[in-house]
Design brief:
- By secondary structure, the protein is mainly α.
- It has a single domain, classed as Cytochrome c-like domain (Cytochrome Bc1 Complex, Chain D, domain 2, Orthogonal Bundle).
- Helices cover 59% and strands 0% of the residues.
- The mean pLDDT is 90.
- The structure holds heme C.
- The site of heme C (HEC) has 27 residues, from helix 3 and helix 4.
């Protein structure tokens, strides 16, 4: 029995690792489609903050998805410095929410 639960745990870990990876791939597709990659990379600072740092900053904060989704569409400045993120009117509400969720899930 012990061995069985250890195996289940192992497969559980493998599968959840895969899910995280798949989400990162989906995030990359969305970032590219919405032209975010002009300014953002996941793990390197470009013109805008690296997205993995954004995930760290808002980790565990209630309402972070909504807040970031709104910021993705409206743009703004002052959180990461003086650089301005222009409004991203091309982004659908659904894409803004999905990207905010995937960004916050980055680790
Ligand atoms: C022209 C460059 C540029 C583009 C294009 C751009 N960003 Fe940004 N982004 C920035 C800058 C600069 C900041 C930092 C703003 C600040 O300090 O408040 C930022 C901040 C962010 C943040 C953190 C917001 C916060 O308040 O902490 C997220 C999330 C983000 N961008 C996502 C995106 C997504 C998704 C897209 C594509 C739809 C995108 N950005 C397109 C420049 C850009």
């Amino acid at each position: 029995m012990k061995r069985l639960s250890a195996m289940l745990l192992f497969f559980g870990l493998v599968c959840s690792a895969k899910v995280v990876h798949a989400d990162t791939e989906k995030l990359k597709v969305l970032l590219q489609r919405n032209n975010c990659t002009a300014c953002h990379m996941i793990d390197k600072r470009k013109y805008g903050p690296q997205l993995i740092e954004v995930a760290e900053k808002y980790a565990g904060q209630a309402g972070a998805v909504k807040k970031l989704a709104a910021k993705i569409k409206a743009g703004g400045s002052g959180v990461w410095g003086e650089d301005m993120m222009p409004p991203q009117a091309q982004v659908s509400d659904a894409d803004a929410i999905t990207m905010a969720e995937y960004i916050l899930a980055l680790k």
